[in-house]
């Protein structure tokens, strides 16, 4: 049955063979460009190991910040594997890169290069570890949430502080460190950037398929399970986010890159952070 | 309305070609109407399957301009009038004739799927209590009309021909309907991994894209099943818990 | 010699809709070897299109509901013409059959306290229809299909039966052909259950698919069985009317059950003007009361008149259109958009929303639908024993739409799905018990097979003959014009004359191409069944010189007391169609009391 030969006109021989007339290549091409662009930027930004802190801001690529003496490389590499692993094993990203990079398939009802196909049974069986990355990703949301909170805490802008600060950024020394002295609530553009960052990342993380399973998806009969009603509500909540997991995946990816870029450019002095309050 | 050209696959077994038919078309016509008109006026032996003509039975599955679709739910007005509409049979199954393919494999797969097994009734009259909020998840999967378009588009079957090792999105959806049924007591995790070949699915979502019933096959059926398989076979923490619990 | 594949079973079931599946399951549970034969793929039968629900007096929504009320509604809806015993069995056993489906995996919509929810429907006193949104039939067929294959029933798909074998006065097999290969196959069995559904494809505007060619009616007729009530063909009041290609496709009664109203082009809810005497007092008399029933208290207010029985609503629509108050495309308006909010409509009527959006470009949450009557169901069929569903020829059983008697002169919505379950089971049980009493399978004489095969292959010898599609089209036109909702003697005579000509043309149909999956050839063979049932309907209509339920005569507009409890019986007498009128069995006193005074 499986091997029966199809008439020649119906066969999809090789990559891209199809009767489809729409621009099926557009979506995988856009995904490839998007992921590559982010990949290059993120690798470089993590590699340089500099300009990731300014004032109360810490680039999400470097948070939580560990700087042990024995580590020869950028501190980003000590932690980035976790969010990277979360995204690599994410059910949405799997679809995106299987299509865009592995061409397996490049688009629906479009021919692909013939090869020995094993799906996620052999090499890709590690994808089943997604839930463990999800546990870490949830921890990261709290860490990045803390970073966002910290970004609202500034030195009280006394004359003495102003005197030692960078012009236009009262409380931040030219080294990028915060001035000594009492603290107060303040808002810079960077505070908003980091806050939005953690919100978007939370939208992505809390819509995770593995989390959806953990909070309630594994239950068949909610009305018979312990805390069934509560777990059903949690499951509903995750489901709402999960419906637009792709949206959250892209917007949070873009924003986390942007957040790093913002902190970096401010730290490099290319742009200056605007204090709103 | 104007004349249109339909480019139909005509053939049997492993031979065939695309044949053009020119046809007068009326307002509101769907592709299946055009095929019927060709049958009645030009090619009485043209083979196609159909029943309800309202998107409820899932018989008239075919590929229209290369996309798996139900012919009865595809309106001609969605296509430019000056270009031919190509209609070909599903590719994941052996061809019988023209637009008809041998889909019997699907019925074999369904028969092997571990069946629904309810817990004992809650009441002496043989009834149970279930609530709307908890049946809705499985009700989505029960919308499946067995058109097999998801099977057709799935590259595991369509391109890699894993019919012997993979049950396809349609029956993963069926399995999900049983698995998430509030009354069901059967456990299909091992079946899905070993015989069902769920690991072959690389969640590229073509099944979801073509489903005429808009079932979120990948997100709501397959991925939750994959997570259940992980629970049983790939989660070391759970394995330890199971070991300790005996 | 023509090669014929052979199979042996205890029981064969022809047709794999709800009734066929339920019969096959039951016979199999009784320990019989069962073959289930269907023209389409398994699970595509007409049952999947049933939308509204299955009527059963579960009493989940209204505890005061019970079999007596259901029985009374069924008899009154059927204009007292029903086989009382069938109506009684149906009302009594339906709840168990529904609960059984749940045990086999069906997921019905739920009430707030976790039971099977029930929706109101035309002609039912209480909310009674167990349902799953508007795809109840799909749920039912899927559950039965899975149960049947796991019971070990042998399923033969895409196989059309063209002849029943009768040896020594007993039905003992069926000859058919595989649609795929065009080869012939002979099934031998002790008992044959017909579950082939209806005959709607003989009309131009119908909600029925190509399969509804009345094969079972014709097979039974050819085998010498009696058929009854063939004049009662139900026109569903709400079929789509626009665009032309979807004309006739069903719009579920559920739309009205959920609050949809019928309007003419002046915006009037005309159903208030068509209240029959029999139901006066049971229905709302003002729009306010009807609306209050829909949205609020169902105990204090009475049902809206849109929920009158199907025959009444259909005739009202025809009258409105005739009086020039119809919609632009010759129907009337069905409006739910002004009665329910969009979310509710999408949730309760998802496939209706989908159907209008996709096929007509109409958003039913914003605009009214255009609807008109469409041939939907035949109440008449094979005369059966109410207990066992045995036909008048030994070895033959019938269940579902192909069987007659249960629904009388008009079927209530929702009573079909429960009919399939109740009498599908009884037919399976009856056939199994009958089969167990038989000895060896009788031999089927070769000449019987050869004759039929020759007849079936004849169209290939006549290439250049009549186009079978054209003959079918002409048949459907004459039935629509001359044997539609309202009939008269002249029209029926015209129809009969047309049928005679069509029969001759059908003998001359020719076909090109091979035997493999050749729909033109299949149509040639279907014509035999279609013409046979069309003639049965026309002759029965001529016989019944009164109007009752779904049978309306322009020349005899009233119900005639002399015709009460009398049925028209059709039977083959050589090459002639014999039509006679016989009295129905007397309704027992205590049941009459229930019908008259309420339960």
Give a written overview of the molecule:
The complex is a heterotrimer of chains A (277), B (246) and C (599). Chain A is mainly α. The longest helix of chain A has 24 residues, at 245-268. Helices cover 49% and strands 4% of the residues of chain A. Chain A has one domain. In chain A, the strands form 2 sheets. In chain A, strands 1-2 form a two-stranded antiparallel sheet. Chain A has a two-stranded antiparallel sheet with strand order 3-4. Chain A is globular and about 85 Å long. Chain B has 10 helices and 7 strands. The longest helix of chain B has 17 residues, at 217-233. Chain C is globular, with a radius of gyration of 23 Å. Chain C has helices at residues 18-29, 67-77, 84-103, 136-151, 215-222, 254-257, 287-295, 310-322, 342-348, 350-360, 415-437, 446-461, 468-482, 489-507, 519-543, 589-597, and strands at 4-8, 11-14, 34-37, 54-55, 118-119, 129-130, 154-156, 159-167, 170-178, 184-188, 191-194, 227-228, 233-240, 261-263, 332-335, 369-378, 381-382, 396-398, 486-487, 552-553, 566-573, 576-583. Chain C contains 16 helices and 22 strands. In chain C, helix 3 (84-103) crosses helix 11 (415-437), helix 13 (468-482) packs parallel to helix 15 (519-543) and helix 14 runs antiparallel to helix 15 (519-543). In chain C, the strands form 6 sheets. A 5-stranded parallel sheet of chain C has the order 7-3-2-11-18, covered by helices on one side. A 4-stranded mixed sheet of chain C has the order 1-10-9-8, with helices on both faces. Chain C has 599 residues and is an alpha/beta fold. Chain C folds into 3 domains: 4-232 and 379-437, FAD/NAD(P)-binding domain (3-Layer(bba) Sandwich); 239-372, Succinate dehydrogenase/fumarate reductase flavoprotein, catalytic domain (Flavocytochrome C3, Chain A, domain 1); 451-573, Up-down Bundle (Methane Monooxygenase Hydroxylase, Chain G, domain 1), CATH 1.20.58. At the B-C interface, helix 1, helix 2 and helix 3 of B face helix 3, helix 4, helix 10, helix 13 and helix 15 of C.
């Amino acid at each position: 049955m499986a091997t029966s030969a199809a008439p020649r006109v119906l066969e999809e021989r090789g990559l891209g063979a199809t009767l489809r007339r729409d621009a099926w290549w557009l979506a995988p091409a856009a995904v490839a460009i998007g992921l590559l662009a982010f990949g290059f930027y993120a690798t470089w930004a993590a590699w340089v190991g500099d300009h990731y802190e300014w004032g109360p801001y810490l680039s999400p690529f470097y948070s939580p910040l560990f700087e042990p003496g024995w580590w020869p490389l950028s501190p980003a590499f000590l932690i980035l594997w976790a969010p990277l692993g979360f995204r690599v094993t994410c059910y949405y990203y799997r679809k995106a890169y299987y299509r865009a990079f592995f061409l397996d398939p490049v688009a629906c009802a479009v021919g692909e290069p013939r090869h020995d196909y094993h799906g996620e049974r052999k090499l890709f069986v590690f994808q089943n570890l997604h839930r463990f990355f999800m546990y870490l990703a949830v921890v990261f949301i709290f860490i990045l949430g803390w970073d966002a909170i910290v970004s609202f805490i500034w030195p009280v802008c006394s004359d003495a502080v102003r005197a030692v600060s960078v012009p236009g950024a009262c409380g931040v020394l030219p080294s990028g460190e915060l001035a000594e002295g009492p603290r107060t609530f303040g808002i810079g553009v960077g505070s908003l950037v980091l806050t939005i960052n953690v919100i978007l990342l939370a939208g992505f993380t809390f819509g995770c398929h593995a989390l959806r399973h953990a909070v309630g998806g594994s239950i068949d009969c909610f009305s018979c399970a312990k805390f069934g009603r509560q777990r059903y509500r949690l499951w509903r909540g995750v489901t709402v986010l999960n419906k637009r997991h792709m949206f959250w995946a892209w917007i949070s990816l873009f924003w986390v890159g942007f957040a790093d870029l913002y902190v970096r450019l401010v730290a490099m002095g290319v742009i200056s952070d605007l204090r709103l309050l | 309305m104007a004349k249109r050209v339909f480019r139909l696959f005509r053939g049997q077994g492993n031979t065939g070609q695309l044949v053009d038919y020119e046809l007068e078309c009326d307002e509101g016509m769907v592709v299946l109407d055009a095929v019927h008109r060709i049958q009645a006026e030009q090619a009485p032996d043209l083979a196609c399957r159909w029943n309800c003509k309202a998107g409820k039975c899932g018989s008239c599955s075919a590929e229209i301009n290369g996309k798996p679709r139900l012919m009865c739910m595809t309106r001609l007005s969605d296509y430019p009038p000056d270009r031919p509409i190509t209609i070909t049979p599903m590719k994941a199954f052996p061809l019988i004739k023209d637009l008809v393919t041998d889909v019997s494999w699907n019925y074999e797969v369904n028969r092997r799927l571990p069946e629904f097994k309810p817990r004992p009734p809650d009441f002496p009259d043989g009834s149970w209590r279930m609530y709307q909020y908890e049946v809705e998840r499985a009700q989505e999967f029960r919308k499946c009309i067995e058109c097999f378009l998801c099977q057709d588009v799935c590259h595991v079957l369509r391109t890699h021909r894993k019919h012997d090792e993979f049950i396809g999105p349609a029956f993963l959806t069926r399995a999900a309907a049983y698995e998430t049924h509030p009354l069901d007591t059967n456990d299909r995790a091992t079946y899905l991994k070993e015989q069902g070949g769920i690991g072959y699915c690389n969640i590229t979502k073509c099944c979801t894209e073509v489903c005429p019933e808009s079932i979120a096959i990948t997100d709501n059926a397959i991925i939750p099943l994959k997570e259940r398989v992980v629970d049983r076979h790939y989660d070391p923490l759970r394995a330890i818990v199971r070991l300790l619990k005996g | 010699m023509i090669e014929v594949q052979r199979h042996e079973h205890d029981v064969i079931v022809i047709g794999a809709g709800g009734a066929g599946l339920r019969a096959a399951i039951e016979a199999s549970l009784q320990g019989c070897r069962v073959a289930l034969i269907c023209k389409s793929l398994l699970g595509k039968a007409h049952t999947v299109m049933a939308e509204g629900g299955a009527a059963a007096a579960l009493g989940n929504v209204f505890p005061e509901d019970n079999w007596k009320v259901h029985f009374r509604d069924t008899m009154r809806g059927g204009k007292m013409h029903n086989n009382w015993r069938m109506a009684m069995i149906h009302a009594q056993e339906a709840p168990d059959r529904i609960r059984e489906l749940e045990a086999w995996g069906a997921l019905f919509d739920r009430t707030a306290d976790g039971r099977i929810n029930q929706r109101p429907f035309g002609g039912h006193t209480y909310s009674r229809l167990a349902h799953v949104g508007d795809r109840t039939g799909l749920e039912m067929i899927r559950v039965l299909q899975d149960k049947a294959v796991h019971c070990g029933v042998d399923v033969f798909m895409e196989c059309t039966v063209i002849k029943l074998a009768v040896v020594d006065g007993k039905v003992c097999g069926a000859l058919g052909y595989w649609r795929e290969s065009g080869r012939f196959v002979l099934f031998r069995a002790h008992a044959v259950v017909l579950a082939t559904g209806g005959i709607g494809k003989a009309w131009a505007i119908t909600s029925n698919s190509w399969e509804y060619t009345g094969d079972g009616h014709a097979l039974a007729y050819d085998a010498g069985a009696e058929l009854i009530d063939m004049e009662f063909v139900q026109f569903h009041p709400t079929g789509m009317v626009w665009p032309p290609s979807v004309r006739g496709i069903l719009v579920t009664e559920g739309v009205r059950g959920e609050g949809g109203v019928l309007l003419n082009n002046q915006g009037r809810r005309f159903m208030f003007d068509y209240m029959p005497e029999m139901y006066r007092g049971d229905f709302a008399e003002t729009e306010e009361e009807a609306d209050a029933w829909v949205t609020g208290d169902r105990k204090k207010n009475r049902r809206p008149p849109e929920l009158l029985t199907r025959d009444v609503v259909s005739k009202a629509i025809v009258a409105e259109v005739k009086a020039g108050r119809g919609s632009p495309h010759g129907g009337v308006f069905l409006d739910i958009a002004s009665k329910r909010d969009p979310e509710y409509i999408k949730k309760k009527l998802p496939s209706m929303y989908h159907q209008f959006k996709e096929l007509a470009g109409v958003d039913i949450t914003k605009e009214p639908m255009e609807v008109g009557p469409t041939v939907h169901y035949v109440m008449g069929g094979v005369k059966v024993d109410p207990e066992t569903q045995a036909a008048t020829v030994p070895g033959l059983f019938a269940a579902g739409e192909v069987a007659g008697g249960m629904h009388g002169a008009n079927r209530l919505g929702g009573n079909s799905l429960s009919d399939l379950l109740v009498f599908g089971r009884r037919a399976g049980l009856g056939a199994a018990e009958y089969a167990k009493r038989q000895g060896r399978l009788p031999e089927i004489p070769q000449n019987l097979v050869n004759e039929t095969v020759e007849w079936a292959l004849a169209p290939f010898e006549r290439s250049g003959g009549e186009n079978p599609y054209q003959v079918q089209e002409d048949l459907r036109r004459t039935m629509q014009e001359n044997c539609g909702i309202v009939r008269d003697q002249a029209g029926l005579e015209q129809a009969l004359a047309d049928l005679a000509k069509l029969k001759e043309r059908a003998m001359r149909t020719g076909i090109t191409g091979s035997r493999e999956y050749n729909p033109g050839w299949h149509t040639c063979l279907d014509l035999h069944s279609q013409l046979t049932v069309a003639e049965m309907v026309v002759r029965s209509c001529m016989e019944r010189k009164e109007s009752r339920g779904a049978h309306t005569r322009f020349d005899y507009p009233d119900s005639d007391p002399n015709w009460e409890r009398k049925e028209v019986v059709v039977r083959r007498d050589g090459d002639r169609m014999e039509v006679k009128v016989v009295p129905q069995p007397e309704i027992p006193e205590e049941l009459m009391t229930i019908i008259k005074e309420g339960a």
